[in-house]
Amino acid sequence: MPERPFYLAVSALIQDGTGKVLLLKRAADDPINPGKWDLPGGTLDPGETFDRALRREAREETGMRVTLRHVAGAGELDLPTKRIAYLVMACDADRTEVSLSPEHEDYTWVVPKEAAAMDLAEQFRGLFGSGE
Questions:
Q1: If DSSP codes are grouped into helix, strand and coil, which group holds residue 93?
Q2: Which terminus of the chain faces fewer neighbouring Cβ atoms within 10 Å, N or C?
């Protein structure tokens, strides 16, 4: 079996100041993880730095301007033709109102231990496992 290439994606773990984090629900017709709860983010464009990519993706998917704070974790998604490595960054946002893009159909603010019990996209399941 040929080696599948790795791609880098960045995701924002946006916190609201009360300990809750933002989850987005992927659209039911999305080719990857349809209907699963997800974090804002995406893959890098060629030549794009990961912090610029994350600010761009967060703005496109939530309408928020985010400030990156620190690495919150990592994840991996195995697809038939490629593998995606996810770098998850803890972020602050300029607001808590969310403007969804067509990629997502719903959003919620939850405490991390609630997130662990939700139908999360595979690459983020380990992120909330400790229930802190």
A1: strand
A2: N
Closest CA to 75 of 4, 2, 8, 5: 8
Task: Note the pTM of the prediction, 2 decimals.
Answer: 0.91
Q: CATH number of the domain at 39, please.
A: 3.90.79.10
d(CA 32, CA 94): 28
Question: Could you list the residue range(s) of the whole structural domain that residue 103 is in?
Answer: 6-128
Grouping H, G, I as helix, E, B as strand and the rest as coil, residue 20 is coil
Q: What is the pLDDT of residues 109-123, one digit of tens each?
A: 999 999 999 999 999
73 and 127 Cβ atoms separated by less than 8 Å:
yes
Compute the CA torsion angle 78, 122, 129, 110 (nearest 10 deg).
140
